[in-house]
């Protein structure tokens, strides 16, 4: 590849990188930049990527030694949105590097190229590298923010495997290092200098381990209230020039959500609002999140004609995103009154959520009907209290019996009381 690119070459390289599978993006980016900035390895720390924020590519002997902790320490030196050239500890040794810290995501993304030799780089080469890195980070951020079903499925599987590996490695390393400290601090050892040096190394390793665990938690999880604030910021521009009033009900808790669930909750909320706005006669929309031990519930309610359907939600890919996380979608439309859409996203696996809550298969409206049924009310009374037709109540009761696997209203009521 020539050291100077034309605009066509840059676009060709960008297209090749963006078409690549997620695990090939960094290797292709490294290959595209090799002619401009000769380097032995590339590493990234992209905090918007929930399932694999740290990646390396290049010479295996070097790339495999690079750690996320090394990049984490280099990040503040570079500064978000800035470029840095110099010598840094990468792969356990000093190397000349070029570091690019993109500001195209809310939490930043760092790319480090471990160069073949030191020396100043051409400004045009750095600008081209920065443009490609900004493009890549924007692309990956969009995949995360829009919660594409395939990406969500991959994220959930990989995040679970990574969490287990971190837990196992953390326990093993902590036990070993704690034991090492106990031995080195023993009064039976009289070589003070050796003990001091070894103790310093062990303490440093423990601190790195703790920092890595905390960083992985911050990448893999997001506080619920902050996640909802980001949703609010994305919704308000949609109604800036509209007469429709938007009411918001945040979850009211800083409890941490899995990052893929937070991404999906925002994407689904935006999709539902856009679907609601396609109706005529909508004056008010209510968007809320509710969090319990096993589930994030996203609800969107309007005062429109009550004609919203699963088809219109499918066009917005809402149903795909819900299915990708093993969630549930319920649409309660009452003609002339409006529509309430409730999406339930499990915080863990679908199996664990079901085991924790025997009523998990039921939708929001079905739970309301079951609650009234458990109080001994007849269909007509339930219809009046919930402002729905008696035939709709019968429809919900039939669904409740089928989903709970029971044969009578009495058994369903007993299941409700047991869960309560």
UniProtKB/TrEMBL annotation:
PROSITE patterns: HTH_LUXR_1 (PS00622), HTH_LUXR_2 (PS50043)
InterPro entries: HATPase_C_sf (IPR036890), Sig_transdc_resp-reg_C-effctor (IPR016032), Tscrpt_reg_LuxR_C (IPR000792), WH-like_DNA-bd_sf (IPR036388)
Keywords: DNA-binding, Transcription, Transcription regulation
Domain HTH luxR-type: 355-420
Pfam families xrefs: GerE (PF00196)
SUPFAM superfamilies to which the protein is assigned, alphabetical: ATPase domain of HSP90 chaperone/DNA topoisomerase II/histidine kinase (SSF55874), C-terminal effector domain of the bipartite response regulators (SSF46894)
Protein name as annotated: LuxR C-terminal-related transcriptional regulator
Organism of derivation: Streptomyces huasconensis
């Amino acid at each position: 590849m020539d050291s100077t690119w034309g605009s066509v070459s840059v676009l060709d390289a960008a297209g090749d990188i963006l078409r690549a599978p997620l695990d090939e993006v960094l290797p292709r980016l490294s290959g595209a930049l090799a002619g401009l900035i000769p380097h032995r390895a590339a590493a990234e720390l992209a905090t918007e990527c929930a399932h694999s924020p740290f990646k390396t590519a290049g010479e295996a002997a070097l790339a495999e030694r690079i750690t996320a902790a090394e990049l984490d320490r280099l990040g503040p030196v570079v500064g978000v949105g800035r470029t840095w050239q110099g010598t840094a500890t990468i792969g356990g040794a000093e190397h000349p590097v070029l570091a690019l810290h993109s500001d195209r995501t809310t939490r930043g993304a760092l790319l480090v190229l471990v160069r073949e030799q030191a020396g100043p780089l051409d400004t045009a080469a750095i600008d081209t590298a920065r443009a490609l890195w900004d493009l890549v980070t924007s692309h990956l951020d969009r995949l995360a923010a829009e919660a594409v079903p395939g990406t969500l499925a991959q994220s959930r599987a990989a995040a679970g495997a990574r969490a287990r590996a971190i837990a196992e490695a953390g326990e093993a390393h902590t036990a070993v290092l704690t034991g090492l400290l106990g031995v080195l601090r023993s009064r039976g050892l009289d070589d003070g200098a050796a003990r001091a040096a070894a103790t310093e190394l062990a303490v440093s390793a423990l601190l790195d381990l703790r920092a890595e665990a905390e960083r992985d938690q911050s990448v893999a999880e997001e506080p619920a209230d902050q996640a909802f604030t980001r949703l609010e910021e994305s919704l308000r521009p949609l109604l800036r020039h509209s007469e429709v009033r938007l009411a918001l009900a945040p979850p009211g808790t800083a409890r941490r959500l899995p990052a893929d669930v937070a991404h999906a909750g925002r994407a689904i909320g935006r999709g539902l609002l856009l679907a609601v706005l396609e109706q005529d006669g909508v004056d008010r929309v209510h968007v809320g999140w509710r969090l319990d031990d096993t589930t994030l519930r996203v609800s969107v309610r309007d005062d429109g004609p009550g004609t919203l359907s699963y088809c219109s939600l499918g066009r917005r890919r809402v149903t795909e995103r819900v299915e990708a996380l093993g969630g549930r979608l319920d649409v309660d439309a009452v003609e002339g009154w409006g529509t309430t859409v409730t999406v339930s996203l499990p915080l863990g696996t679908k199996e664990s959520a079901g085991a924790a809550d025997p009523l998990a298969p039921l939708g929001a409206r079905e739970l309301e009907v079951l609650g009234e049924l458990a109080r001994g009310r007849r269909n007509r009374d339930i219809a009046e209290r919930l402002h729905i037709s008696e035939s709709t109540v019968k429809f919900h009761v039939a669904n409740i019996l089928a989903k709970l696997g029971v044969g009578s209203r009495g058994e369903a009521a007993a299941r409700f009381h047991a869960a309560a």
